Protein 1
Amino acid sequence: MEIFKKVMSKVNAPGKLSVKAVLFDLDETLIDSVQGHIGAHSAVCRLLGQFLNEKGVQVDEKELLVGISKLDDEMNRKFLYDRDDWWQRLVQEVAPNVSITVDLIQRLTREYWLAYALAAKPYPDTLPTLDYLKKKGYLLGLVSDTDKLPGMKRYRIEIQPFKYLFNMTLVSGEETKETKPSAEPFLVAAEKLGLKPEDCIFVGDKPFADVAGAKNAGMKSVLVHRRDWNSDVAADYVITSLSELENIL
Ligand SMILES: [Mg+2]
């Protein structure tokens, strides 16, 4: 209810926002990461389950899936994106006496991202909303943090069906020194578009990374509320689907 009131009060304000560019986050903002995670977690579960079985450790597949899902959430909250570290933690938890080889760790990370890339599709309103903004004359930008597997995030951006609509795409932490919520990637993105940060509005799903980063850079911010992150970082606007951007822009 609070969210609803906040959005409505902004929508009812006279005139729409005067920004020149709309910048987006990728995962869980433009593409459905829930589907991506389901695909990625199953791939890891299959491969790791097989490895553990070969080592004589019987693991319940459902339990392993829940473990991976919990770990994914926890690591994202801590900004720990390096999947190689995740698998060591996971094995430590489910089979503390088994040691995992570097080779398998790297294979799990590759399988995770490839399965994720295949399964995470755009939300139904992603393309129509981007089209709408493009037709309204906004420049479009994308700033997404590294997957910590060099080149993987760039690959995942390039395969998106909406890539051609963007004037600028940036992988923070690979094509810039710092990741969100540092102001650096946001400032680099604005500069690449030839704009000042205050001419840009940033749309993302993570209050502590996307909204905080946009604020640090002096950009306006929109939170797409996909789930509750229990964060007290407040965005200028809160929406629950991308199509609601048409009320703001
Ligand atoms: Mg995101």
Protein 2
Amino acid sequence: MSKLQRFTDRADQQVVLQLDKLNKIFNTGTPLQNHVLHDISLQVSRGELVALVGTSGSGKSTLLNVMGLLDVSSSGELRIQGQLVQGMTEQQRTQLRSESIGFVFQFHHLISAFSVLDNVLMPLMLRFGKPSTAQVEYAQYLLGEVGLTQFMHQSTNRLSGGQQQRVAIARALVTRPALVFADEPTGNLDTQTADEVFSLFERFNVEHQCAIVIVTHDPRLSARCPRTIRLTDGRIVYDGASADLPHLFASPL
Ligand SMILES: Nc1ncnc2c1ncn2[C@@H]1O[C@H](COP(=O)(O)OP(=O)(O)OP(=O)(O)O)[C@@H](O)[C@H]1O
Ligand SMILES: [Mg+2]
């Protein structure tokens, strides 16, 4: 049996993310040309929780940035909720990103000059201006869900690393995105805090049915995702059930 396994599209699943032969080449046509992603094809359906793993430099962040519309591909096709991204204007891409995608990074990028609540509301304020009462209530609900109600009106710089990352998760979810991309969101946290933060992703994944693609170097956490995609030198070398990940690949990342 081929080592390369892929999840096939099932008719009853709603595909929210689809890549067909996607390539990314940095510095095209210069001596620094670097072909980082090679013919990446994959699909993610509504409500999936997917770990993206691979050694340092294998292209995980590059892939996440392209899928999350923070960077553009060099060739191939990317569809977000059925919409073909190639050919869109910058403005259309920005709109699609703000409607459909939430991001969580290793470093939370919170703004300490603003309160915790305003940080969570930021994606809505950027899109709509002053948030509505319903939007503020939803942000408050999310802060409750991540256990931070009592800190709502404080500055973010009085929070611990784990608490700040929980604010970043609430911020990523406040637009009710169909897709959440998280790039090593627990990479900066101790084991117990990482477990707690990861549990929040699991909960939101089930409760809100948002698809989540999470980059992690922690095999304990990737094992908790039903599906794992593994990159080696910018190519998918495994895409399948985390439980079936060949032993060959289970070595430390
Ligand atoms: N803006 C850029 N210009 C040129 N090359 C880049 C750029 N960004 C990333 N690369 C290259 O792309 C390759 C993949 O980098 P990437 O950051 O995607 O890896 P990664 O799998 O996320 O690694 P890590 O686990 O260390 O975060 C590396 O060789 C890197 O040097
Ligand atoms: Mg990276």
Protein 3
Amino acid sequence: MNQNHVVFRSCAVLFAMMVLVAGNITSAQAQPPQGEKSLYERLGGVYSIATVVDDFIERLLANDILNANPAIKEARDRVPKAGLKFRVTELVCQGTGGPEQYHGRTMKEAHKHLYITEKEWDAMVADFKKTLDKFKVPDSEQKELFAIVGSTKPDIVISSTTPKMQ
Ligand code: HEM
């Protein structure tokens, strides 16, 4: 397995971690059956995961659809991107069975003030796909990752009846 492949597999781990943490799944629950490597190990550990998170967050920060939302734009300008990458990396590492612990907010708490819409969610998913493709994550693992990320959607996307910030 070459370096790029390990990094791309880490991409999947990252998203899995975020989703698992968002769903209050503990690192113990992320442990694989006896004799099998954890997802964290298969992805190449924290350095590989951090590399994938870095690529993904950079895409999101430059996404015009996301930045058209004033609440997202405000947070983008206010929150140091190195800290956001750190928190997301923590989340992915914990959720995939690594030794790192996530110390951030729940997905609901972290995103409720951003008023994220379906359209913005879809833009995020498209960027995630680009990162996974860049690192050549296999289709089967991409499907698993998208399923995991999708499980956080109810905590992140506003309902159509929620008033949007002007
Ligand atoms: C359209 C989708 C998303 C957008 C636009 C978005 C944007 C943001 C922004 C701007 C912040 C910083 C908020 C602040 O501190 O005021 C944040 C925090 C965070 N997001 Fe997202 N996010 C999205 C989806 C996700 C998903 C799917 C996950 C994980 C599965 C995730 C994980 C996190 C984490 C771990 C933090 C840090 C929480 C903390 O520091 O306590 N985000 N997000």
Protein 4
Amino acid sequence: METEASSKVKVLLEALPYLRQFYGKTIVVKIGGTAFKDPELLKSIALDIVFVEFLGIRTVIVHGGGPQIGSLLQRLGLESRFFRGLRITDASALEVVEMVLLKTGKEIVTLIELLGGKAIGLSGRDAGLFLAKQMGAVQTNGEEVDLGFVGEIVVTNPSVVSLLLKERLIPVVSPIGVDNEGTPLNLNADTVASRLAGSLHAEKLILMTDVEGLLDENGRLIPSLKSTRAKGLIESGTVTQGMIPKLTCCIDALDQGVRKTHIINGKIKNALLLELFTESGIGTEIKF
Ligand SMILES: Nc1ncnc2c1ncn2[C@@H]1O[C@H](COP(=O)(O)OP(=O)(O)O)[C@@H](O)[C@H]1O
Ligand SMILES: [Mg+2]
């Protein structure tokens, strides 16, 4: 006879192969800005993270903050403009970007702490984590667009992150870099997550966003694909806006030796656990 208690034990045992696979390994999880719009959702994501870390999986968090940056800019009467998913960042936007991102990072840290985990917030400015350079002007259809203080990562030095992981702290990384003159730069959070995953030799890169995963030209979810097909989807224009850096990042991470990358819907409750501990997983997985 199966009691409630024994069915709980069964669930635990079913997770054993995954626990064995991921124990002691590193995963990098990027949380998209939309998660911050719903405090309950964010709390539930933080709980999943605390749970996963207690299972012995070294977990690194990278977060975005697009909607929050957009709304503060709007309150200040400043406009948000994007180019291929990257926020065009002038000097006044840069100040807002950094303020909002650092605050957002600390919100995740606090949630993790309240739920019994140990977390620490940092950005690319700390301990030489991300040296970047200004992307500056880019050409598009013969037109020139100045991206301003958007940074391109030049050097990733993840030693501070490794140190924290060794101490069983959960690093919460805000996507800010610094150039060699000390000017902060706005980094795309997907790129930050991808570089971290690559440099830490992570087992997985998981990008949580606000859609089911990667959608094909008919709007249907692609559960699994290889990086060669992913490149084609960008070239054919099936993938646009913020999905471009996401997909590019997954391809880069795979090139850097990350075993698997995933684009999942962070709005699904316990999305992280569903991805890690179920056979089929959720969203889109991109493999080499
Ligand atoms: N082929 C595609 N499949 C899924 N989403 C796509 C695709 N092309 C463009 N997108 C857009 O990319 C968005 C996700 O990127 P973004 O807005 O930057 O979110 P995040 O805050 O998670 O980085 C989706 O909400 C969707 O509008
Ligand atoms: Mg984005």
